[in-house]
Structures are given as C-alpha cells and as structure tokens.
Write a structure and sequence with these properties.
Jelly Rolls; seven-stranded antiparallel beta sheet; binds manganese (II) ion; four-stranded antiparallel beta sheet; binds N-oxalylglycine
C-alpha cells in the first residue's frame, strides 16, 4: 500500500445511471468496487473491524426523540457514526459529496447534507422490514448502503431484501452484502429488511438529508 490516496471515480455518466435507477424503480444496486478502489474498501473494513473488536459500537436505536427505543425484536445491529476525520473516511465523504451534488443536479432533491454510520450485524442479527424516513417529517431522502464483506456467500445470509414500493409484501430484489456492492434507494418509499446474518456482516449506511444541520442546544 502507498500513502497516496486515489480519489473515487465518479463520472457524469455514472451519476446519470444512478439517478435514472432512482427515478425509474426507486432503488438500485451496483458494484462500485472499481470506483472506490480496493485500498479504500479494505481501509474502511479495517476501521469497522477495529471498532467492533474494541466494543466501540453501540446498539442501534429506532424512532426519534422520546420514541427512541432499543428494540431487539426490530433491529440488532450495532453502529458507530462516521466523522469523516480519518483518511479513508475523508475519501469516502468525497464520494458521498459527489453523489449528493450529482443527484441534486439531476433530480432536484434539495439534498443538503449526509450522515453515515458503520454497522455490524453479528451472527443472528437482523433488521426487520422498515422504511428509513417517515412521510411528513421526511428529512432522510436518499439511502445508500455500502458493504464491506470479503467472500460473502448466499449461505452467509444477511441479504438486504427490497420490497415493492406499491405492495410491501412483494419482494422485488435481494442484495448480498458483498464487498464493494452498493444499494441506493428512496428513503421514504422503499420498504426493506436485513435478513439474519450467519456470520459478522459489515456495512456503511449513509443518508442524504434535505434539512440543515441542527443547531446545538
Ligand atoms: C438501515 C438498513 C440495510 C443494510 O441501516 O437502515 O436498512 O443492508 N440497512 O445494511
Ligand atoms: Mn433501513
């Protein structure tokens, strides 16, 4: 490895492609390993594995404000928010920023910022069917999940299952959390779930939001 970082490759054509996917189906999945590069992907995996080993991840919650719950029947993953301060996170944030600007230019979504966390699902962990944002108080507009698992097989479970936006009982896609694969979807529209993982599953979830940064209390 060398110390020179190579910026992730984001072309106009690729941005057209992902914008079209969101417009036509509300979601898409694609392998972006060659855009991000192996060094960035392994660097990110090392970070989340270290966080996991040192128990620096915390139990994920659902809901917001007074409704915040740690409900183990709904989701069992553990998370750590990214701050964009390490070299690999800086590179990843540059990639997210290009996606944010590119989607705004094409779809006029008014995406103002993004937030991202690492997630670890240990054996048996899952996240039941849900949407990432509730209509009316929509601030998460587009969700992006990036997977960091080497040699992930079908038998390892942990697939992201995507449901039809018109009929949430109809499965319309299944994404294996293979290293370098990305899932992108409209946060309010697309119900999805993480099936139980049979081995530790690492990912980064990012949300592009249409609200401003909250002011400190
Ligand atoms: C989430 C989520 C999907 C995945 O964190 O809200 O749905 O495949 N993640 O990890
Ligand atoms: Mn989700």
């Amino acid at each position: 490895m060398n110390n020179q970082s190579v910026a992730p490759v984001v072309s106009d054509q690729w941005l057209d492609e992902i914008a079209d996917g969101l417009t036509e189906h509300g979601w898409m999945s694609q392998n972006v390993a060659s855009r991000l590069g192996v060094d960035l992907l392994s660097g990110l995996r090392n970070e989340v594995q270290t966080l996991d080993r040192t128990e620096a991840l915390t139990k994920a919650r659902i809901g917001r404000g007074a409704d915040l719950l740690r409900d183990r029947s709904v989701r069992r993953d553990k998370i750590a928010w990214l701050q964009g301060m390490t070299p690999v996170q800086e590179e990843l944030f540059a990639f997210f920023e290009s996606v944010r600007v590119g989607l705004n230019q094409r779809l006029f979504l008014g995406l103002k910022r993004f937030e991202a966390h690492y997630a670890t699902y240990h054996e048996g962990d899952f996240y039941r069917r849900h949407v990432d944002s509730f209509q009316g108080r929509a601030s998460r507009v587009v969700s992006l999940v990036l997977y960091l698992n080497e040699d992930w097989q079908e038998a390892d479970g942990g697939a992201l299952q995507v449901f039809n936006r018109e009929n949430e009982d109809e499965i319309c896609g299944k994404v294996l959390p293979v290293e370098g694969r990305m899932a992108l979807f409209m946060s309010e529209e697309i119900p999805h779930e993480v099936l139980p993982a049979n081995r530790t599953r690492y990912s980064i979830a990012c949300w592009f939001r249409c609200d401003e940064v909250p002011l400190p209390l």
